[in-house]
Amino acid sequence: MRSILRVAWRQLSYHKMKLAVAAAGVVVAVMLMLVQLGIRQGAIDNSVAVARRITADLVVVSPRTKTIFQSSAFPRRLLFRIPGHPAIDRVQAAYMSQAKFRSPWDHQEFPISVYGVDPRDPMMDLPGLLAHANELELADRTLFDRRSRKTYGPVAKHVEEVGPLMAEINYRKVKIVATVNVGISISTDGNLYMSPANFHRLFPARDPGNADLGLIRLKPGLDPELVRKELEPYVGNEARIVTRQRLVADEEAYLRDTAPLDFIFGMGAAVGFFIGFVVVYQILYTEVTNHLPQFATLKAMGFSDRYLLGVVLSQSFMLAFLGFFPGFVFALGIYKISTKAIQMEFDMTLERAVAVFLLTVFMCGLSGIIAIRKAWTADPADVF
Amino acid sequence: MQTSIQSGDSNSVVRAKDIQFAFGEGELRKQILFDVSFQIEAGEIVLLTGPSGSGKTTLLTLIGALRQIREGELSVLSRSLHQATATELMLVRRQIGFIFQQHNLLPFLTARANVELMFDLHPEIPKAEVRRRASDLLESVGLGDRLDYHPDRLSGGQKQRVAVARALAAEPKLLLADEPTAALDSQSGRDVVELLRNLARTRGCPILMVTHDSRVLDVADRILHMEDGRIQSGV
Questions:
Q1: What's the CA gap between B193 and B215, in Å, rounded?
Q2: Per the domain annotation, does B33 fall within a domain?
Q3: What does pLDDT average to over chain A?
Q4: Do B107 and A14 lie within an 8 Å CB cutoff?
Q5: What 3-state class would DSSP assign to A171?
Q6: What is the ipTM, given to two decimal places?
Q7: Which residue segment(s) compose the domain that B103 sits in?
């Protein structure tokens, strides 16, 4: 059995062109699988990014709210009951809505997400916000998410290089004082962060007595789930209290429910798998068929079916290796390009790389097993 | 009909008694071999001749443990092939050297690698020994200067000589050849057969060779002539 690998490699590499085609098939398959699964994960991750940035231990939402991007409001007065519980450190309301952002460059209007949070203690992880807390307290001041789409114009560039920019938001002149680095998703193109007071200035029709989110911070060392249960009677059925982790899970579940991400990108990955399978199978099958007399001769001379299987499976795994690494590098490149092109983050994770590698090995192995069946049925007596 | 092998030298390499063989079942049944009995002794070179369709190749595949024998007694290298399992047949085949009409060398391996491949069936032989023996064998078939040539760079006669070296690689106890000269011109055919004879003689390895080629009949110790599935004569 010692020569299996050598024989396998000699056969595979004898026709360089065939080897290149087979490896290219695997490269395409690996690339497609990695990119499709990566974009799927990227879309999910980016969409729950806002929920993930919340640092409050518990969150109050309206019972009608399915996703915080389209939240229903609940009466803000409910939040005033909560500090009565001894476990509570701080409670505050947060607001979010969609506004119209008029580009200072081409004067066209684009929807943008607006968040009203306490600039001194936002209970959200908004890097760079605190540095501008004082300024944000002034009327009609806002921060702009530098990862917003390009549709708004070179806002971030202007703010960072030239200085504050006046823009028209919901028919109001607002001063963009600085940028934050947060991120957008498939449901929002851009973000503005401002104080609740400025938020209400942009939405005069909104009832200031209604809040979209209630953010609760507990005193250190308490179990949020226990406190959550004790707080439930405080708000009754007018609002729902969830833990931070639960909010993220709910957002993800909602997204996968409403946007057919798993199906679309799963399908794309499946197509990649299928392409790789067909190419590898085709190459291995013609190799087996072209060498059927020689394989039958080996069988006649006392080589076992297991030996032949060993040769073809070794070739499968060699193709898997040869195809995976270039495919992996290409996928990394595509992640980079996509990140630039649609301003969403796509990261390679170890789990995805390992999963796709295993899929590739499985894909090639399956092709090999199906291709070898022909040689198994070859009757060594037919060689004569 | 089952009869035990009672007669004959116990050193016989091949003992066949009353072999019947048929392809197909029922109405399509076509009997190929009728009451074939013969023996091959150690060191003998036996030619098997006869018109096509007379059953020579079928007989060769039975002796070569490539087909299951159902009727009659056949013992090869002291093992009865009657009702042997596929694995048992495979183990018998490992002690037999085969030479085919086509050389059937693996095109992607060099002459040396094709010969060395056979030692995979004998993992007990150390690697250095394998290399030495493979080059010795190729040397002895006159291809010492073609060790690292791929088959597509060798002539028909040279390829068949590599096949001879390959067949002899694992020191077989029996050599079966099916028209080894059929694809060769007369001179290379003659060379291959003489080579076979000399190598078999020095190793004491018996040969059973199917051939149509009247030019090589003189190498034989004995000629069996088959006609219509029966052995007509043993000279």
A1: 10
A2: no
A3: 89
A4: yes
A5: coil
A6: 0.83
A7: 42-66+85-234
